[in-house]
Amino acid sequence: MNFRSFVTAALCLPLAACGGGVVPRTGYTPSPAGPPASAFMKQGPLMGSDARALTQMFGQPRLDIRETTVRKLQFANGRCILDAYLYAPARGKEPVVTHVDARSPAGTDVDPAACATALQAK
Predict the structure, then answer these.
(1) Which pTM value belongs to this model?
(2) What distance in Å separates the CA atoms of residue 107 and residue 103, rounded to the nearest whole number?
(3) In what helix (H) or strand (E) does residue 84 lie, and over which residues does it extend?
(4) Closest listed residue to residue 87, CA positions, set 69, 102, 101
(5) How far is CA 44 from CA 19, 31, 34, 85, 118, in A?
(6) 15, 18, 19 from 11: Cα distances, Å
(7) Considering 3, 9, 35, 38, which has the largest number of Cβ atoms within 10 A of its Cβ?
(8) 71 Cβ partners below 8 Å, 6+ apart?
(9) Using CA atoms, how far apart are residues 6 and 24, in angstroms rounded to an integer?
(10) d(Cα 99, Cα 41) in Å, to the nearest integer?
C-alpha cells in the first residue's frame, strides 16, 4: 500500500463510522390513505368561482400570480386582503377557487366571507 492510499483510507475511516443503517420500528404499519383533499375543501360563496367572476365581484386584482398548476389572485382595499387560489378541476378545464385566505393589513386572520363583503363595498 502506498502512502497516498494509506492517507486516503485513514481519512475515510472516521467518516465510515458516521453512516449507520436505518433500523425499522417493529410493528410499524403505515396508516391507510385518508379521504381525498376535496373532502376538506371549505364551503363558501367564492368556492368554485373562476377568475372572471372574482374580477366582476372585486375589480382588478392587486396580484395575479400564475404557476404551473395554480393561479393566485389577491384583492385588497385597505380593510382586508383576500387571497384566492384557483386550480383546474380537470385537464383543460377553467381553474376555479378551491381555497381562500383573508387577513387584515396588520396580518391577523379575518373571516373570508366578511372580507369578501368588505371588498365589494369598496
Answers:
(1) 0.64
(2) 5
(3) strand 81-87
(4) 69
(5) 51, 31, 23, 13, 15
(6) 7, 13, 14
(7) 9
(8) 51, 64, 65, 85, 86, 87, 95
(9) 35
(10) 7
Q: Which residue has the cell 391577523?
A: 108
Query: How far is residue 122's CA from residue 111's CA, in Å, rounded to a whole number?
Result: 17
Query: pLDDT tens digits, residue range 28-55?
Result: 555 444 444 444 445 677 999 999 999 9
CA-closest candidate to residue 99, choices 57, 23, 40: 40
Give the chain's length: 122
The domain limits of the chain are: 46-78+106-122
pLDDT for the residue numbered 40: 43
CA distance 122 to 79: 9
